[in-house]
Design brief:
By secondary structure, the protein is mostly helical. Helices cover 40% and strands 6% of the residues. It has a single domain, classed as Glycoprotein, Type 4 Pilin. It has a three-stranded antiparallel β-sheet, covered by helices on one side. A hairpin with an 8-residue loop joins strand 1 and strand 2. The N and C termini lie far apart (88 Å). 14% of the residues are buried.
Length: 144
């Protein structure tokens, strides 16, 4: 015998209804929580990326300072001497840097001191907040 389908509705179809308001609210809250978590991770990634760029920039700028010293026989008195030739220097083969390179990824000027506290010069990015000290992306990035 062949199975015949009933022309009436099946019992399970009669029991199915649309989602209740509570279920819709729960789904919306869960979607919002996922989006908030993903958004925080993406935005936090930018800060982490800028911090890593600043670390690399400090190291690169230190190399440019050392190139200036090798060419001229002295350290620059200010980072601007890497961009424009000082009048009292012989052997300058620059420019060693572009004006934009004298600022960290957050737009703060790099701090330069010669002589330095622990070496011939100090080179520091003050981090995202632009203030000495701090932790995480607000922490100082020093050439060592």
């Amino acid at each position: 015998m062949r199975n015949r389908r009933s022309l009436t509705r099946s019992p399970s179809a009669a029991r199915q209804r649309g989602m209740s308001l509570i279920e819709i609210i729960i789904v919306i809250v869960l979607i919002g929580a996922v989006l908030a978590f993903v958004g925080a991770r993406v935005l936090g990634g930018k800060d982490r990326g800028d911090y890593n760029i600043a670390k690399a920039q400090v190291q690169t700028m230190a190399g440019k300072i050392e190139s200036f010293q090798m060419d001229t026989g002295r350290l620059p008195t200010a980072l601007e001497e890497l961009v424009t030739q000082p009048s009292d220097v012989n052997g300058w083969l620059g420019p060693y840097a572009k004006p934009a390179e004298l600022k960290d990824p957050w737009g703060h000027p790099l701090e330069y001191r010669a002589p330095g506290e622990t070496g011939p010069f100090d080179l520091v990015s003050l981090g995202k907040d632009g203030k000495p000290g701090g932790t995480s992306v607000d922490g100082d990035i020093k050439y060592e």
